[in-house]
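Posting this for the archive.
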Amino acid sequence: MEPLAPLGTLPAPIAPIAPAGQAPAGEGFAATLKDALAEVIKTQAAADAATKSFASGQSTDVAATMIAVERASITLQLMLQIRNHLLEAYQEIQRLQV
């Protein structure tokens, strides 16, 4: 049995979390949602372009077309699930007794 080699450099420590009451630097929640929606729109446009290209005969790659369509479908489903969870959270807040 061979002896264990000593560890090299240790991994960098995890960055500290911002104290309570302070907003972390960077993008806000609304900006993150806008970016996600822009990504959904971009994948929908790519799927539409791939479908039109395949239908017109410019492209013969069935796999790439199906991948683009499925990617668009999955991103749309994800966005709908996020919307549903946000709606449920809003409704839960509305039901809180003050």
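The longest helix spans residues 62-95. The chain has a mean pLDDT of 85.
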